[in-house]
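Report of the visiting student (M.T.), summer placement. My assignment was to run the structure pipeline on a short list of targets and document each run. The first record concerns thioredoxin-dependent peroxiredoxin.
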Amino acid sequence: MPNVGDTAPDFSLTANDGKTYSLSQFRGKRHVVLVFYPGDDTPTCTAQLCDYRDGWSEFQELDAVILGVSTNDLAAHQKFAEKFAFPFPLLEDPERQLCKAYGVLMLGGLLPVANRAVFIIDKQGVIRYRHVETIPIFKRSRGELLDALRKLAD
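After the run finished, the structure tokens were exported:
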């Protein structure tokens, strides 16, 4: 698992909007809030992503983009994003390569899924904030993430 101060692993994944996103496309331009979550349209994941949606303008003011990541497929992402009007992309990680690269693949149950985790990556591609939940029913609030982004701006 990469630590704060490490260069963030790059990726190139397709999102619910049909576009392909890579971490390198934001380098030098924007901070990236990389949000791993276990599953689309589940109670805790929905509450978490809706919280970020409701603070979208604040993230934008801090020059940050949110990228959601789970192991769900594009059809599930599209349905979830439309249902809750998420203004940020939900990336499909079908081979679980991004989850593995960030050390957040949770094994157990029927299928391996992403553990709930958030990484904030600065404009140079360096991880400046990392939180991986030990109990996946908990989540990071938008206030905590916005505070971390404000500290990066100082």
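DSSP finds five helices and nine strands in the chain. Strands lie at 12-14, 20-22, 31-36, 64-70, 90-92, 105-106, 113-114, 117-121, 127-132. I thank the supervising group for their guidance throughout the placement.
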